[in-house]
Write a structure and sequence with these properties.
- The protein has about 160 residues and is α+β, with helices and mostly antiparallel strands.
- The protein has a three-stranded mixed beta sheet, sandwiched between helices. Strands 4-5 form a two-stranded antiparallel sheet.
- Strand 4 and strand 5 form a beta hairpin.
- Helix 3 packs across helix 4.
- The two termini are about 30 Å apart.
Length: about 160
């Protein structure tokens, strides 16, 4: 627990692009590879498992969900954007966590709020703003969209 907040845990799957395409198709109905998918946990707010079993006493981290990351896609994106793989992977992990905590980017306002949160977290880790220096690519078919001249990935 940090700053009085409960501890959480996240499951993560690092998979190939083909597996990510299957997951994206199965869970989102989108037949293409994406870089990260978020799967929020469906445990009730009270933290008690639905099967009636009780958790062990003490501060057990709460599972908030799972992330899937497409390794091949991450490498290609990092190279295309001249970023280190470590920084890009960290950004997409943070992006996935933001989704698990309820943030989204369906509207421009939501995207701006989500990007501000991501950028602040990444800055605290010494990672540059991933949205800051990318050219406008509105109208491309590479899974991105542009709002206010900044490239945003559509996850």
């Amino acid at each position: 627990a940090h700053l009085g907040q409960p501890s959480v845990t996240v499951g993560a799957l690092l998979c190939d692009d083909q597996r990510m395409r299957q997951l994206n198709s199965q869970f989102r109905g989108k037949d293409y590879t994406t870089n990260v998918l978020s799967f929020p946990d469906e445990m009730p707010e009270d933290g008690m498992p639905q099967d009636g079993m009780h958790e062990s006493p003490g501060p057990t981290p709460r599972l908030i969900g799972e992330l899937a990351l497409a390794y091949g896609r991450l490498i290609a994106e990092a190279q295309d954007e001249a970023k280190s793989l470590e920084d890009h992977l960290t950004h997409l992990f943070v992006h996935g966590l933001a989704h698990l905590f309820g943030l989204d980017h369906e509207t421009d306002a939501e995207a701006q709020d989500m990007e501000a949160a991501e950028t602040a977290i990444l800055a605290s880790l010494g990672i540059a703003d991933p949205y800051g220096d990318v050219a406008d690519v509105a109208g491309t078919s590479d899974g991105t969209r542009s709002v206010d001249g900044r490239k945003r990935a559509v996850f």
